[in-house]
UniProtKB/TrEMBL annotation:
<dbReference type="InterPro" id="IPR002177">
    <property type="entry name" value="DPS_DNA-bd"/>
</dbReference>
<dbReference type="InterPro" id="IPR009078">
    <property type="entry name" value="Ferritin-like_SF"/>
</dbReference>
<feature type="domain" description="Ferritin/DPS">
    <location>
        <begin position="114"/>
        <end position="253"/>
    </location>
</feature>
<keyword id="KW-0732">Signal</keyword>
<comment type="similarity">
    <text>Belongs to the Dps family.</text>
</comment>
<protein>
    <recommendedName>
        <fullName>Ferritin/DPS domain-containing protein</fullName>
    </recommendedName>
</protein>
<feature type="region of interest" description="Disordered">
    <location>
        <begin position="254"/>
        <end position="294"/>
    </location>
</feature>
<feature type="region of interest" description="Disordered">
    <location>
        <begin position="52"/>
        <end position="99"/>
    </location>
</feature>
<dbReference type="Pfam" id="PF00210">
    <property type="entry name" value="Ferritin"/>
</dbReference>
<dbReference type="GO" id="GO:0008199">
    <property type="term" value="F:ferric iron binding"/>
</dbReference>
<dbReference type="InterPro" id="IPR008331">
    <property type="entry name" value="Ferritin_DPS_dom"/>
</dbReference>
<dbReference type="InterPro" id="IPR012347">
    <property type="entry name" value="Ferritin-like"/>
</dbReference>
<feature type="signal peptide">
    <location>
        <begin position="1"/>
        <end position="24"/>
    </location>
</feature>
Length: 294
């Protein structure tokens, strides 16, 4: 065995030993493993985020991630290195070259950049999650949801690019790094494994609602200091609200059909507010969830 093969073997053994406790600690264990989060528990984190307005992403595991990353760099025949420090998450560096002055001062520019950056992060999170769901959707609605989620993914990608390039246009760098998404998105991690169609409808009904409300706050923050950014955010909100409706409509009650989602969920209703006959009008602040299967 060559020196480099021995190093790789040692790296694999060390990584295997470190990986299982790290996964359990961050709540990202694959379905079927002890300690894996239920859809109910994860959807409850959206409820918490809506109630507090705070991001609910779990804290990263910087020590474990850094150790694995360092080990990979040491074992690599072509080490990945940069002369620049990693910086904070997010990092929005402001250009010193001439750019159009918004005329509202530095604090206003910071607010403008903050609204754009948070929108970019949420759009990237939704890009990842719609693609994950596009691949893993299972059940009666597999095919229409497979197609719809791809359409949403492509729309979200265009919006993310527009918002990132607006950051550059106002003189700031855009931060689309994986760690920035994990550490600052207000949308929790989507469950791993196969995804039930009813669970997907409940998940994206709530995730789009949360992001749409966040973008709406950005529209209001920027409407006086940077109307162009505010208008772009309105376009994004327009798209997100459409996507939210396209998920919610699958479970829309009508006068002739309660549309409770029982046909998608092993005979149990999908617990979105207002889906049960005789139930009170939806509380727009309460997230729903798919009823867990026994
Ligand atoms: Fe595909």
């Amino acid at each position: 065995m060559t020196h480099s093969l021995r190093a790789l073997a040692a790296l694999f053994l060390a990584g295997s030993a470190a990986l299982s406790p790290a996964l359990a600690a961050t709540g990202t264990a694959p379905a079927g493993m002890a300690g894996a989060p239920t859809a109910t528990a994860i959807l409850a984190r959206i409820q918490l985020a809506q109630a507090t307005g705070q991001p609910t992403a779990p804290p990263a595991d910087p020590q474990g991630a850094a150790a694995r990353s360092d080990a990979v760099r040491r074992a690599s025949p072509t080490p990945v290195a940069s002369r620049q420090p990693t910086g904070a998450f997010p990092t929005n560096e402001i250009s010193r070259q001439p750019s159009i002055d918004l005329g509202a001062g530095e604090d206003a520019l910071r607010k403008d950049i903050g609204a754009l950056q948070q929108t970019l992060t949420e759009l990237q999170q939704l890009q990842l999650q719609t693609k994950q769901a596009h691949w893993n959707v299972s059940g009666t609605l597999y095919y229409p949801l497979h197609l719809l989620l791809q359409e949403h993914y492509e729309g979200l990608s265009k919006y993310a690019d527009t918002i990132a390039e607006r950051l550059l246009a106002v003189g700031a760098s855009a931060d689309g790094r994986a760690n920035t998404i994990v550490r600052t998105s207000g949308v929790p991690e989507i469950p791993g494994g196969f995804l039930d169609d009813a669970q997907i409808l409940a998940w994206f009904t709530q995730a789009y609602k949360r992001v749409g409300e966040e973008v709406n706050r950005g529209i209001k923050v920027t409407e006086d200091i940077d109307p162009t950014t505010s208008n772009l955010l309105q376009e994004v909100e327009h798209g997100i609200a459409k996507y939210q409706w396209q998920m919610r409509a699958h479970l829309q009650r009508t006068g002739t059909d309660p549309n409770a989602g029982r046909d998608l969920n092993d005979g149990k209703p999908v617990e979105l507010p207002g889906t049960e006959p005789g139930q009170a009008a939806p509380d727009r602040g309460t997230p729903g969830q798919a009823a867990p299967k026994p």
